[in-house]
Amino acid sequence: MTENQHHEDEQLEVIMGLIINGGNAKSSAFEAIQAAKESDFATAEEKLKESNQFLVKAHDVQSKMLINEANGHKTTVSLLMVHAQDHIMDAITFKDLANEIVELYKKLASQNSFIFNEAGKLIPGFLFLVLFMRL
After folding, report:
1. pLDDT digits (tens, 9 = 90+) for 58-68
2. Cβ contact 8:37 at 8 Å
3. Is-catalytic flag, 83?
4. Which CATH topology does 3-133 take?
5. Regions of the chain short of the pLDDT cut 50
6. Of residues 7, 73, 83, 87, which has the active-site annotation?
7. Is the pTM of this model over 0.85?
């Protein structure tokens, strides 16, 4: 294996790590919203923390890439690299929004018992109705 092939393999491994961590972060954030929808706020918080841990891993990889570039080791910007960075940005945005949605469900659970069924589960469809009624 040539040095160039080795470098390309390392870069592909980094890119795939970014995509995987970004995807896992977004999935965990989505699971947090689903748990909050079911009034399972402990699981929602756990999933938000899990999402953040995946994003920290991705951020660590990005930091290493920046340090390498600052030290003169240029990174080839490929379509896969752009795709990986897009995954990370999307996951960060989704996690931030998931945080807000979980907080909304918590607030609704504490203030509006009339939108919960007898099992304590939020009745689907009422979240936005209640939010618009308050505007």
Report:
1. 999 888 888 88
2. no
3. yes
4. Methane Monooxygenase Hydroxylase; Chain G, domain 1 (1.20.58)
5. 135
6. 83
7. no
